[in-house]
Amino acid sequence: xxxxxxxxxxxxxxxxxxxxxxxxxxxxxxxxxxxxxxxxxxxxxxxxxxxxxxxxxxxxxxxxxxxxxxxxxxxxxxxxxxxxxxxxxxxxxxxxxxxxxxxxxxxxxxxxx
Length: 113
Fold this sequence. Notes:
By secondary structure, the protein is an all-alpha fold.
């Protein structure tokens, strides 16, 4: 239940920011916690991509309707978006596919949708 409340708050925050600015700037100014959901990878896993960055990426894709391939192209064309989300490099589309299938549990899927 806590994760759904947090996800709802995230959605409201983004919606309110969009009244004043564009989507990229809204995400840039976002300092929302994602503490209610847990990384599906164990602590010892050498995951090179930030869990928070991945979750925010999926929220961004949910809003824009981007596929993994289109989102990866967006990040390549707009590396500042990758940086805003928390990536040090642009992930490929298979990284998003693996995260959705292997890293995110049902609670994280529900949080994003």
